Every structure is written in C-alpha cells, then in structure tokens.
Amino acid sequence: MPGGTDQTLRPFLWRSERFYPDTEIVSRTADGIARYTYSEYADRVRRLASALDAAGITAGDRVATFCWNHHRHFEVYFAAVTMGAQLHTINPLLPVDHVRHIINEADDRVVLVDPSLLEALEPAVESLASNPVEQFVVMGETAPETELDPVTDYESFIGSHDPAFDWPAVSEDQPAGLCYTSGTTGKPKGVEYTQQMLWTHTMATQSPQGIPIADDDVVMPIVPMFHVNAWGIPFSATAGGAKHVYPGPSPDPEDIAQLIEEENVTLSAGVPTVWLGLQEYVREHEVDLSSLDRVVVGGSAAPESMIEWFGGHGVEVLHAWGMTEMTPIGTVSHLKHDLEDESKETRIDKRSKQGLLVPGLEFRVIDDAGEQVPWDGEAFGELLVRGPWVTTEYFARPDATEEEFADGWLKTGDVVTVDPDGYVEIVDRTKDVIKSGGEWISSVELENVIMGHDAVEEATVIGVEHDRWQERPIAFVVTGDDEGTIESEVLAVLDEQFPKWWLPDDVVFIEEVPKTATGKFAKRVLREQYTDASVFDGEPPEEAAPDSE
Ligand code: ADP
After folding, report:
1. Whether pLDDT at 537 is above 60
2. Which residue ranges make up each domain of the chain?
3. How many whole angstroms separate alpha carbon 536 and alpha carbon 549?
4. Average of pLDDT values for 37-51?
C-alpha cells in the first residue's frame, strides 16, 4: 500500500494522548461535573477495550450504546472502534418496537446503557424473540435493579483491566460504526461506517471549509452521541486536541448556558430547537456567551433570525447539512472570501443556505425529467451526492432501491436549488413539498419567514389535501402572545414576500410542534391529524396556483 498505513482512527487517539495529555474532558453527570485528562481518558479507553476483549468481542462484533452524551460514552467511541469492533449507537428515544428491531438486526453482543434509560431498554429486550446480547453494562459505579441479564456496572467492568492493552491491526475497510436513521418513514434503516469513512469524514470536517477544531477549542456537542456520532465531533475534537465538554442527560437551556460560561465553550453543535431554547433563556437571564466563537446548526434549517441573533453576540453560525447516510456532514455555509464585502443582507442570505459542499464530495441536482438543473438559485431538483464517506447501501438490506441510490450516488430526498456561487439551499424534502394546483410551494421558505417573527417560538407548514387544489399549505404556530395579532402579522409579512397563492389557508395555534426522536419537527404527525383542508376556516385565494385550470 503506497500510503504506508490504512486510514483508521487509532492515530487520532495516539496524537491527543501524546501531545495533549493534560487537556481536559468534562462531563455533566447526575452527580455533578466529572473531569479528567486525555491521559486518563486514553488509559480508560484501553481498559475498556481490554474488558471487551476479555468478554470475547473481536473484529466485526457490534458493541451497542444506549446513552446520552458523557465521558463514558466517549470512552466507548474510541475503545470499540480502535479495537476493530463496531460502535453501534442506538437512539433511546425511538419507540420500543424500533429498538427491538435494531438490536435484533444488528445482532449486538454487548449493550452499554445509562441508568436513566434502563426503563426504555428493558421492554425492547424483553420482547426480543431471541436475545443476541451477552452482556449489559450499566454506565456508572453500581448497577441498579434491572431485568437485564447478565448485567454489571461500567466501573467494575473495566476495573481490573489492563491500561496497556495492545491495539490490534485494523484495516480501513473494516466496519467501525453503525447508526440507524430515525425512521420518520417505516422501520429504521442501518447505515454502516467503515474506518475509512470515519477517517475521511474527520479529515474533511477538520479542513477550513468544514468545521475545523483546534487545540485551543473547547467543544460541546449537544447533538446526541446516539445521532450519527454527534456529527463526528467527538472524533474531530480528539484529532484536533481540543477540550471536550459533554452535557449529560437531557440538558436544558440553563444547563447549556451554565456549561458555556463555566467551561468557556468555544464551539457547540445542535439542532435549531436547542438554540431557540437558549435564545429564549438568554433573553430572560444574564448569560455570558463571550467565550463562544462558533455554533454548528444542522439537522433542520437554521432560521435567518437565529444567524442574526448569534451574530449579535459575536458568534458565527456554521449552518451545516447532512444525513445519517453521509457520516453525516455534507455542506457547511462558509462565506466565500469574495462575498465578505457584500451587503449584510446578502451575507446573511448566503449563510442561511445549507452552504458549500465540503471538500471531497460531489453533487448533482436532477429534475423530474432526470436532467441536471442550472445553478441559478431558482431551478430545483433532487440532490444526489457521492464521496468517500457517503454510503452506497443500507445495513443488512442488499435490496437497495433506485429510490435510494443511483449508479453510486445517494439520492438524498432533499429538494434543492443551487445559486451561481455554488451554495445549496434546501427548499423541501421530496415528501414535504406542497403541490397546489400542480404548482410547487416550499414549506421551508414559508417556515423561515414565520419563524422570523419575534413572538413565534416554533412554526411549521404542511400541505393538506384539498378538493380543488389537491393540496394547500397550513401553518402551525407556537406563541405565548395574542394569537389573533400574531396571525394577522404573520400573514401580512408572508403577503409581502410571496405570491398570494403561497399564503397558508390557515394559521393553527398549537402548544408545541410534535418532534421526532432526533428533535426535528414531525410533520408526519401533523399530517395525520390534519388530513383535510376543508376543516380550516381560511378560504384559499381564488388563484391557488398561477397557471392552473
Ligand atoms: P433522519 O433521517 O432521522 O431525519 P438525518 O439526520 O439522517 O436523520 O436526516 C437527514 C435529513 O435532515 C436531510 O436529508 C435533510 O432533509 C434534513 N436536514 C439536515 N440538515 C439540514 C439543514 N441544515 N437544513 C435543512 N434540512 C436539514
């Protein structure tokens, strides 16, 4: 092999231990803040690998976690991967039958579980027809009462094991990770990550056009570690030698604000809902955000108002788009250098797009006729991507369909435009696009503008069936203010920016937008509840689509 060694994660661990032995790893736990150094971390990682080895885990075996973001979970990240096993992070917020399906299909041999999540895991394990799990390990110093069997606690499990564990040779083609998409449609599908996919993803995100992390950074991933390896941040922060901060189980805005202040966090990452919560908290409380330099927002679109709000606090928003199938980062909205002197409006407009493809990937945008669309910021089509960290198949499903993959390209299911500068903007999911009278309305664009209203806490727009127009948009809004006033103000702003027939037929006020297990707005749930536009009081404008009928 010309390059000398394979592309595996072991060198990242080696580098941080040798170069930054005293850099800290901090973790919020039920008992308070836990804190140690990379040097202690690396010792514990080897003890865990040795314990797993003694439990019979070898190359290709799957080690599952059912955990929040904390230091022990981070230990499993490097131990499982570096010993050549496969880190399988399970989303504990999934329904029981999904968890059962996942454990069964993945054939997990060991499951490490948080004490607070035992109740969510037990019914899934109990209902397995045949249980592949040979050892449950409860994250902590003691194992509470549980139906899981055999069970031990984490500290006893790694306790007497050897911190001098010798890492075996591992090849870059070996599976190293596994993560299931949260299954917004149908059963969750597994995506397997090889060593090479994790390595190339780490190196690309470490580049200046990605989400570069350096040794003076203090990095706090709020995006759960069960969701696509917390966007790869535990790996890239280690590669960069940064201090890590893990926010523990279900951090609320107060916990997040406190950790930023006390640990001097410079970079954090999470879905927009997390940041909306922080924004609201900061409005009402004295919070020092001065250490914060960059915030990665992804998973759903970052509203312009959020980018401006962070900008006002001296924080750069790195708006990122990706998918479980892409390990997950695909684009980041960096401002190209020749756009830096453009007006504030143009700069915010660019930053609020999903951004530029990170180096190493390629994309195409294909319309309904299978033709590539021009880069004019107007024409839209489905986004297809390919590259070293983009999967070309689903785990245990050799029967991948043409809806999912085409000639080595991943069909993302995202409908996008590309502007002349190359910025990709997601205008919808293929399944969320609203078709009114045969013409297309972007639910995402409507949502962005509604969310820009100061008194709107959450907003989403779905298409509901309509006798005459096939589908019409309905907006769902969460606010603490007077609903009548908000409705007329929101409709007035939309009226200024969009054609009449794009305006929602109704604005429905709800307590909370239902969320998926990964904190995204669950449009499917609303669609099921509101199946028919005739229930709404609003009348569609006479002209519900321009050239229809
Ligand atoms: P799930 O499949 O469970 O929703 P993923 O994280 O794999 O989990 O979801 C990927 C999808 O999330 C993308 O295809 C896209 O629709 C959406 N998405 C991710 N990031 C963004 C973003 N920055 N803006 C808009 N949508 C996004």
Report:
1. no
2. 2-22+33-209, 361-429, 434-535
3. 23
4. 98
